[in-house]
Amino acid sequence: MNRHYSYYNNCVNWPKGDIDGLHEIVDNSQTITRKTFLKHVNYKELKHIEKGLGYSLKSNHGLTMAGDWCVSYHKSTLHGKTVYFFCYSSIEYIFVKEGE
């Protein structure tokens, strides 16, 4: 699996000087499956975020992010470069290609 996209930021903590970048992400987003999302993002970072959001890491211990129908997954662009993000509670969590 090619997981070269690392967690960058979320929309709540987005740099004030780059609001246009955040608008680009939202405006150009395409919905994708969780399976597609997982093929691209750093899995360890994602699991850390999921735990921080209160999700169980195993379905027999409670709600997992994979089992939460309210979470959506997306592919988009930021300054013309591909990004991936998930949306949880109307907050976008953006992953960018490592080194960019």
What does this structure look like?
By secondary structure, the protein is of the alpha+beta class. The protein has one domain (5-97). The chain contains 3 helices and 5 strands. The protein has helices at 19-27, 34-40, 43-52; strands spanning 5-10, 30-32, 72-78, 81-88, 91-97. A 5-stranded antiparallel sheet has the order 1-5-4-3-2. β4 (81-88) and β5 form a beta hairpin. The two termini are 20 Å apart. The mean pLDDT is 94.
Features:
single chain, 100 residues, alpha+beta, five-stranded antiparallel sheet, 3 helices, globular
Write the layout of secondary structure elements.
Elements: E1 5-10, H1 19-27, E2 30-32, H2 34-40, H3 43-52, E3 72-78, E4 81-88, E5 91-97
Antiparallel strand pairs: 1-5, 2-3, 3-4, 4-5
